[in-house]
Amino acid sequence: MTLANAPKAGGQDVFTLPELPFAKNALEPHMSAETFDFHHGKHHNAYVVKGNELIQGTGLESLSLEDIVCKAKEQGNMPLFNNAGQHYNHSFFWNCLSPSGGGTPTGALLDKINAAFGSFEKFKEEFVNAGIGQFGSGWVWLVENNGTLEIAKTANAETPLTEGKKPILVCDVWEHAYYIDYQNRRPDFLKAFLEHLVNWDFAASNLS
Fold first, then answer.
1. pLDDT recorded at residue 77
2. Can you state the angle between helices 120-133 and 107-117, rounded to 10 degrees?
3. Which of 38, 74, 85, 206 has CA 20 to 30 A from 66's CA?
4. Cis peptide before 99 (omega within 30 of 0)
């Protein structure tokens, strides 16, 4: 999936904060409206605002969001990369959530998961363990790498895009993603993500 970033030139905003694809209270009790007030309304928006400051005059203003992320990393422009990467990761994460989420995927996605991990239950176990094992702030991903699915972890604003891997699904394991609702219980948050929140239709749409 290519995420739109409304590219503009001439000092205008390049990045825009996307609307959530659901009402802020639609994921309760598993994720609260208060969490979205902070996570989407403040944390994500701060990356958008700062990113718009940092991108001016770089020559990257007309590129896609994915290309901005990769070019900023390639050029060693870490302030821009950190903000554009967080904008990309968060925009992707909102689409990985659904009020009717959870359950088991179907079709080609389930087939690929079974082929890569042995079973869907084994995938869930490995995904949760990877999220728990991500030290500090970061993300746990399901990615496609040369046609095969694998789990990846990234710290801070890092993203599989810069490694040539195709994001299929992500869960945010920064503390601000879950602390209001789960305090320090990251394992419980990851399990709730897979059991009640994950948008398998979006994940399936990202397969090659």
1. 98
2. 70
3. 38
4. no
Q: Give me the residue spans of the domains in the chain.
A: 33-95, 107-205
Helix, strand, coil proportions of the chain in percent (round to 5)? 50, 10, 40
Q: What is the DSSP string of 137-194?
A: SEEEEEEEETTEEEEEEEETT--GGGGT-EEEEEEE-SGGGTHHHHTT-HHHHHHHII
Show Cβ contacts of residue 137 under 8 Å, excluding neighbours closer than 6 positions: 155, 156, 173, 174, 175
Residue 23 identity: A
Give the contacts of 146 (CB within 8 A, at least 6 positions apart).
none
pLDDT, one tens digit per residue, over 36-70 is: 999 999 999 999 999 999 999 999 999 999 999 99
Q: State the Cα–Cα distance between residues 178 and 158, nearest whole angstrom.
A: 19
CATH number given to 33-95:
1.10.287.990
pLDDT value for 3: 55
Topology of domain 107-205, CATH: minor pseudopilin epsh fold (3.55.40)
Query: What residue ranges of the chain have pLDDT lower than 50?
Result: 1, 4, 6-10
Which pLDDT does position 192 carry in this prediction?
Answer: 97
